Amino acid sequence: MAAATPLYDTYARAPLRFERGEGVWLIAEDGTRYLDFAAGVAVNSLGHAHPHLVSALKEQAEKVWHLSNLYEVPGQESLSRRLTEATFADKVFFTNSGAEALECAIKTARRYHFAKGQPEKFHIITFEGAFHGRTLATIAAGGQAKYLEGFGPKAPGFYQVPFDDMAALKAAITEETAAILIEPIQGEGGIRTVSKEFLQELRALCDEYGLLLVLDEVQSGVGRTGKLFAHEWAGITPDIMAVAKGIGGGFPLGACLATEEAASGMVAGTHGSTYGGNPLAMAVGNAVLDVILADDLLQHVRDVSLVFRQGLASLADRFPDVIEEIRGEGLMLGIKAKVPSADLLKAIRAERLLAVPAGENVIRLLPPLITTAEEAREGLARLERAAEQLTAERRQASA
């Protein structure tokens, strides 16, 4: 019997078909408007059809789309300089996705020690519940059985320790350890925030043992927490950082950032990407930074986050049978549900609000960074109606 679709059956897609977007709204084919607090899983950082991004893409599309890295790409020079001026980094490698940015980060960390005459130092310590991508290396780094199953032996060189367990981390360090890789906030893992103190201890530990600190800011970066990058809240800097999602505002774009020292082993021929850093991606990435680095954007994120946090706290108090806990920072928020999270997500969608499931029975709210206080309150009102509906259903079921 022929399959219903020629597409791979790897996604459990919702039966929703959108034809256009406007800011924080998505419009379905039948004209129904949805408030988009999923943002393409934290990708559409500036919402849909942002005029500055559209203009930049159109302008570049009329010039040249792709060149490859056989030649100099002026947009790469511009975007890399802006990123290094705004961060800890000295060097940037452009990719097409977060997984590719993580692959580059892993290779950079291992190559650093190889170039120092220590090829045995290639092991990377990661944390349980982490998600670093879908390639063979990044599923090994994440260590989650559901992503590893059926793809042969796990790629070697990755060792997971329990989340937020410093004693276990210290015990895991050996002469073969090259780096520690961590998300400042676990996204897929359920919006679990690493404490400032833990990140500070990680930095000190890496300095003490000569390890590289690698941060995965694919989801938490580019303004999502109210700082340009989430690690800034802890007052530390990594040696290597993977970035993607919001940096392209919806265009496939990622980057691996590193200090001069950490990137010292990545010489000509050690890594490459055919599409990475092409002119179209660079035009959009530069346009995204134009907006993100504007004087008031990050303060706006912090202000709107306060509206969300207050509203979500109120909902948690009023609907304790539905909401167990509110998590996250900035506009990277999570609702740990008392009911099955699939039921909460269904109720939210029925109110024409889009959100994202995560681990630990959590629903993620990842609204565009341009979301207004009024739009935040509209989303909270829809969440309230969903919680009311679920509460009523539970009472009927127990009657």
TrEMBL record:
| Pathway as given in its UniProt record | Amino-acid biosynthesis; L-arginine biosynthesis; N(2)-acetyl-L-ornithine from L-glutamate: step 4/4
Major site of localization recorded for this protein: cytoplasm
Q: What residue ranges are annotated as transmembrane? A: none
EC number assigned by the record:
2.6.1.11
- Keywords of the record: Amino-acid biosynthesis, Aminotransferase, Arginine biosynthesis, Cytoplasm, Pyridoxal phosphate, Transferase
Which positions are annotated as binding N(2)-acetyl-L-ornithine? 134, 273
Family, according to the entry, reads as follows: Belongs to the class-III pyridoxal-phosphate-dependent aminotransferase family. ArgD subfamily.
Details of cofactor binding: Binds 1 pyridoxal phosphate per subunit.
Self-association state and partner proteins as the record states: Homodimer.
Tell me the InterPro entries matching this sequence.
Answer: AcOrn/SuccOrn_fam, Aminotrans_3, Aminotrans_3_PPA_site, Class-III_PLP-dep_AT, PyrdxlP-dep_Trfase, PyrdxlP-dep_Trfase_major, PyrdxlP-dep_Trfase_small
Name used for this protein in its record: Acetylornithine aminotransferase
Q: Please name the Gene3D superfamilies in this protein's record.
A: Aspartate Aminotransferase, domain 1, Type I PLP-dependent aspartate aminotransferase-like (Major domain)
Q: At the top level of its lineage, which domain of life is listed?
A: Bacteria
Asked if Nucleus is a keyword of the record, the answer is no
Which cell locations does it reside in?
Cytoplasm
Alphabetized CDD domains for the sequence: OAT_like
Q: Does the entry feature the keyword RNA-binding, yes or no? A: no
Binding sites annotated in the UniProt record for pyridoxal 5'-phosphate = 98-99, 131, 216-219, 274
Which species is the source of this protein?
Rhizobium herbae
PROSITE patterns, alphabetized: AA_TRANSFER_CLASS_3
> Where is the PTM N6-(pyridoxal phosphate)lysine found along the chain?
245
Q: What else is known?
A: May also have succinyldiaminopimelate aminotransferase activity, thus carrying out the corresponding step in lysine biosynthesis.
